[in-house]
Amino acid sequence: MKKIINKTEDIVPEMISGLVKANSDLVKQIDGTTAVVRNDSKFAEEKQVGVVSGGGSGHEPLHAGYVGDGMLSAAVAGEVFTSPTPDQIYEAIKAVDHGLGVLLIVKNYSGDVMNFDMAKEMAEADDIKIKSIVVDDDISVENSEFTQGKRGVAGTVLVEKIVGAAARLGMNLDDLAALGQKVIDSTKTVGIALHAATVPAVGHPGFELGDDEIEYGIGIHNERGYSVEKIQPSKELAHELIKKIMGEFPDQTGNFAVLINGMGATPLMEQYIFANDVLNELAADNISVGFSKVGNQVTSLDMQGISLTIMKADDDWIKMLKEPVATIGW
Amino acid sequence: MKKIINKTEDIVPEMISGLVKANSDLVKQIDGTTAVVRNDSKFAEEKQVGVVSGGGSGHEPLHAGYVGDGMLSAAVAGEVFTSPTPDQIYEAIKAVDHGLGVLLIVKNYSGDVMNFDMAKEMAEADDIKIKSIVVDDDISVENSEFTQGKRGVAGTVLVEKIVGAAARLGMNLDDLAALGQKVIDSTKTVGIALHAATVPAVGHPGFELGDDEIEYGIGIHNERGYSVEKIQPSKELAHELIKKIMGEFPDQTGNFAVLINGMGATPLMEQYIFANDVLNELAADNISVGFSKVGNQVTSLDMQGISLTIMKADDDWIKMLKEPVATIGW
């Protein structure tokens, strides 16, 4: 394993410290935690529902890279592929509550759900109005190593973007939670790996694939998928993922949003070629795409691979996806 | 070699097509070329000097990812690691000339310099006011495989940002070229590879490094560097690069700008850890950092590695680096 790190146990604190130092006009760290909070000039006088997300590290720019005006109010980082602790989540909640309450956006992993729930109880005991929504956009497999139900993956960033935009527009906590749930229900993702991620403390890839093999349906923590196959041209990969995802949408009228997401070690060049194939096939199928985005958004350390997220999107959501934000990663 | 592509010969046109389709509110393609031009609403009525850059593909988001209000007017993509042709560059020049002239930003590779020069002559024959500047920020080696003099690498994006901001503010062509040259002279970069890039048509990495080896001073086309060493902790890597670069600045007072750049397959996690070490060491040395940025800006396909760029920056330049832009990649 060759990685640009110091000691394995210092990875997360050093990463957060680097991120905050390099972007101090946008974000600051809550002392003694790995929670990152907005630090822009608008934040202090802001009157909006706070939006907090977080999860294990190794998925950068998710989540700290989405902290900023129009997206998240705060993000909490756990150790690599490990949930953040309830007390750290609770500190983030307190830091962003302006009296209008806080919405938690949680990816569906047992550890995350449990720890965010505990933080929520701590906040409730403190009379903070608080709700949570759980993202489970990965339709590849029903249950998984760390999950009951479907996993939360790249679609999370679209949920954070729409919820963040609505919060900035002044939506109240109940409506925001309902909107977030509706967005989650309309968002479906499938990913492919060409090469598994190497967790630093482990030192070797999470699973092995042959020189000409890929795996469909992998998760963002090296969870296995639904099928190992010979690698295909990008067009065929796009076709397989589109077929699988669009099967989840009985009504294919109206607008859709598309996210092509790199898993960490896949260059933008390949992501754009894949995007070309995806957008061509959707156009040929008369699927209307109102928003599309390509890039490394929800990664899995140095995994080589890609995921496709498709959302059936109200026109309002398309508008909210396009709203400018001031974040590191969007 | 496992890559998400179709036919090798279609890589660049398909990549450009995907990039443009996914970002049609920002950019459009000039028919029959791989040149990408601004497509935002402000561009048509704009009165500013046009800024055109380009070069071989494989360095995404450079250059097409920096086309947009406040940065490049157009970018021209060659084949992988190959200069764009003069006629394509010429089409881009014509598309962005509003009568105030066009500045070309060229990376210092023999093929690029020659082809941009030919395009410049074509434009001059057409009575378009035109100047060019050549970026040679890589201080690792004096001459290289494809270069007379120093190579142009990640510092290019900072040059494009400052020149683009100044052009938007209405600076004339002569002053813009002089500013660009001054910025280039103040910008120094050194890169490290942990693993070389695989050019798709070649099918294997450009050079081999041992399981515990890194190479200092590599270029963005698999050009060899100045030394192969055992891998060190991030702190030591940061120290080596800072020492080498800061030796180029006899006057270390005033402000500096810092760019930590991922080479394509190195996760943001490692880039932030490295950034933390760089910013800590500069702070300990009382070097004032007025601007810093971390991410994949000027990549080399799937190379694993990182580069550090440091610029001695006027206060005006820091301001221009911080100006918001509407691009895919900044």
Q: How large, in whole angstroms, is the Cα Rg of chain A? A: 19 Å
Low-confidence residue ranges of chain A: none
Coarse shape of chain A: globular
- Amount of helix of chain A: 25-40%
How much beta of chain A, percentage-wise? 15-25%
Mean pLDDT of chain A: 97
Order of helices and strands of chain A: HEEEEHEHEHHEEEHEHEEH
- The span between the termini of chain A is 30 Å
What is the CATH topology classification name of the largest domain in chain A?
A: Rossmann fold
How would you describe this protein?
Two copies of one chain form a homodimer. The first copy, chain A, has 330 residues and is of the alpha/beta class. Chain A folds into two domains: 8-185, Rossmann fold; 187-322, Hypothetical Protein Tm841, Chain: A,domain 3. Chain A is 32% helix and 23% strand. In chain A, helix 7 (268-284) links the parallel strand 10 and strand 11.
